[in-house]
Amino acid sequence: MECNAALERRIRSNLAPFEVRSAVVDDAHHAAVAVTVTDIARGADLPGLPAYSRWQDQAGLILTRRSNKLRNHPGQWAFPGGRLDPGETPATTALREMHEEVAAEIGEDRILGRLDDFVTRSGFVITPVVVWGGRKLALAPNPDEVASVHRIPLTEFLREDAPSLEQVASSEHPVLRMPVGDDFIAAPTAAIIYQFREVCLLGNTTRVAHFEQPEFAWK
């Protein structure tokens, strides 16, 4: 799947009729994440994925591993994102966090739309903002927040073993995971990836708010 104008049009077209579901939860913090489509290039190595030495035509999503120095969710997979500051919209927060976490300069004209809000066990309502990063987007991780930054090919999220669902004793709903090479990403990030796949790439109206998160993400 190439990172080109046809893919951008496809995502815009699939998002246009999608009826976004917002969530309002008392005492929850509102956050936004940037679900950014760009091309594949050299980045931090991951077991089970090719290590590229030059730019590729393949499209991918930008994901990070959170710094182990962070108080909340250290070392976990995440999209660039964070809490909304006073006066911000989810879109402005997502773009600000892209700049602060991975030094990406992206204008509001690159926003393609948004996905459903996802309510986390840790007390956040996350709004995923879909962003077109385009070709050869320069990235540099902020070491205070990001341990590593990765451009994961979209084809990883279209694998036959994606998603995987695990029943757990602590919930009536299954935990959703998405594969990444020999590793996996768990909800809430995995739930957002899965809805991106279903809505933006496949044109479905799949909902993901009911999926559970693993207990390590509850805190």
Biggest β-sheet description: 8 strands, mixed
Averaged pLDDT, please?
90
CATH class of the domain at 5-155: Alpha Beta
**What distance separates the N and C termini?**
36 Å
Summarize the helix and strand pattern as letters: HEEEEHEEEEEEEH
- Strand portion: 25-35%
Contiguous uncertain segments of 5+ residues: none
Output the radius of gyration: 16 Å
**Fraction of helical residues:** 10-25%
Number of helices: 3
CATH architecture of the domain at 5-155: Alpha-Beta Complex
The total of beta strands comes to: 11
What is the structural class?
Answer: alpha+beta
CATH topology of the domain at 5-155: Nucleoside Triphosphate Pyrophosphohydrolase
Inertia-based shape: globular
By CATH, the superfamily of the domain at 5-155 comes out as Nucleoside Triphosphate Pyrophosphohydrolase
Can you characterise this structure?
With about 220 residues, this protein is α+β, with helices and mostly antiparallel strands. The chain has a domain at about 5-155: Nucleoside Triphosphate Pyrophosphohydrolase (Alpha-Beta Complex). The protein is built from 3 helices and 11 strands, in the order αββββαβββββββα. It has helices at about 5-15, 90-100, 190-200, and strands spanning about 30-40, 60-65, 75-80, 80-85, 110-115, 120, 125-135, 145-155, 165, 175-180, 185. The strands form 2 sheets. Strands 1, 2, 3, 4, 5, 6, 7 and 8 form an 8-stranded mixed β-sheet that branches. A 3-stranded antiparallel β-sheet has the order 9-10-11, covered by helices on one side. A hairpin with a 2-residue loop joins β10 (about 175-180) and β11 (about 185). The longest helix has 13 residues, at about 90-100. The protein starts with a helix and ends in an 18-residue tail after the last helix. The mean pLDDT is about 90.
